[in-house]
Amino acid sequence: MKITHTRIPLTILGLAASCGLVLAIHTGQALTGATAAGSSKPSTDAPSLVAAATRTRPVVSSQWHWQNPLPQGNNLRGASFVDANTGTVVGEYGTIVRTTDGGNSWTIQASGTTQTLWAVSFTDVNNGTAVGEGGTIVGTTDGGANWASQPSGTTLQLRGVSFTDANNGAAVGESGTILRTTDGGSSWVPQSSGTLNTLFGVSFIDTNTGTAVGGSCGIGGESTVLRTTDGGQHWVSQANPGTVCLFKVSFTDVNFGTAVGDGGLILRTTNGGNTWSPQTSGTTKTLYGVSFIDTNNGTISGFELGGTGIILRTTDGGSNWVEQTNYLLPQGANAFYAVSFTDANTGTIVGDAGIILQTTDGGTQWNSQPTVTFNFLYGVSFTDSNAGTVVGYENPDGMILRTTDGGNSWVRQNSGIGDPFAGLNFFGVHFVNSNIGTLVGQEGIILRTTDGGNNWTQQTADTTDWLYAVQFSDENHGTAVGFLEGKILSTTDGGQNWGVQSSGATGLLGVYFTDNNTGTVVGNDGAILRTTDGGQNWTPQTSGTINQLRAVWFADANTGTVVGDLGTILRTTDGGQTWVSQISGVSEILLGVSFTDASNGTAVGQLGTMVNTTDGGQTWSRQESGTNQDLYNISFTETNKGTAVGGFGAILGTTAQGPTPTPTPSVTPSPSPTPSATPRATPRPRPTPHPRPTPR
Q1: What is the pTM of this model?
Q2: How big, in percent rounded to 5, are the helix, strand and coil portions of the chain?
């Protein structure tokens, strides 16, 4: 079969969901600031659903933990190491991760917030401060065993922080915000910066002497450099040749400093900023992190929009910058945001999807944490608490991952097919037992295994529709559905032959059969179709919504649940003759749902959304998933044993925590385009929404 499409994984459109969007797709690259486009058709039931979604619902704690990437998969934005062994990294969803053994093991710490943390500064192994969105400031005096919120007095984003000792520090952010503390964060006092430009980075060399950088980003922008020599009582703007945003700055003493920014900009001063001189970086990529340990030795980290990350190294104060490429990462994420060195040899770089790169030889070799993939994962199927399969995107041959130990370890399987130009997307997977399973994907791809995935055989179907879901009622009887053409494919012989059934639907996303004859499919414009004769006839049912319906699950022939856009949850107890809207308590798009019986179920979706019910949906409670990565699917085999999968290789499990990861170079290079984001005043890495055309 000829593959002509580029990789276009499924994604979600949050802000535009209330406009009755069709299913969205993206190119596999996370581009910040993209506007979601949708159909012009209004959602007639959006007000009632939004009202229901905004009612107060309890947040239920859970035991979800990361199985991939390790030690976790939230985007990391800041890093601070005080010595070769002890360091802390921070990022989205309030993520704080700590090591005390040079990265051999990491501990996820409770920050007390789900706001993005953009920067962190430790002065010793115990005292540290992190800052982020919404004016968030959290501090610790015990190495992160406990983090306490501190009063910032602002709701503006804070993007940089620098402490010189346990008491004295400064934070900077949006609209020229500068905050100063002299009591370890018990109180923060605003200072006058003299600018409304966003300040992204700050570096204090002693209690009095500090430099903040930022700028006005975009066309016609400018670089902002501010200097204080009296602890911030006065900030003076310094002239510089930059014309783009500066994101970080690093001083080693009162005179020597380096600032980095957009378009490969590097500025250097040797006289405390009286003059700043540009240096030749050799790149036009965004340079976002910089760390100097003395006047000569420095490292810069960054990325390219839609491209790969970059690491630059100098040993002569920036007269020469050399790109370092001696690292290996799985496909899917190469955006490097922050760098922290403690000596000329020992350093750490962090970035998207929980990337952690470490070196002990000045970057001659960078080692990464053990991660199977950073690419998007869309389908998951477990047959018991141990045996499960996950599918998603990979170049060239699609992603298939298998576990036989409940997700403590994942093994990559070979699909046997591939597209060397763009890679393949596998969207849905279903196993009827530990050996026999089927997966579906782009352009009518159907693969079958009878040995637990050791071997996959491609099956022939008369369609090039993009198949998003598949479900078998036994080894022989199965159904797959497609979105672009709304196709329903059926087999009664284990896929040796697939027939196309007439549905009349405009686009289908979910399917569930309770036996060989009785099944339901859902999709575009609130479509729900029902068959009781194995698909010979499909009857439309009244859903009561025109929202996109994404997934369906049935406990028996009568009792089922459907989830979709705007937090939509529908329930039937009479085989779909009537569907009743349930209050999910969320407004995000719900993409997957799994029940273990008629009462106990969980739905997942956009921005790490997870809701749970124990009473058949009479009440739904939000669970803390621990991430804001989009979650595309979920599979439960027992009430407390489940697996959820999503963006940037996210795999979350509820079973026992696996072994402590040790840093080792990944075995897979990263030649393909990878998700990144261009920092602006409020960067938010998300897959670029491209509305999928509504099949008619």
Answers
A1: 0.87
A2: 5, 40, 55
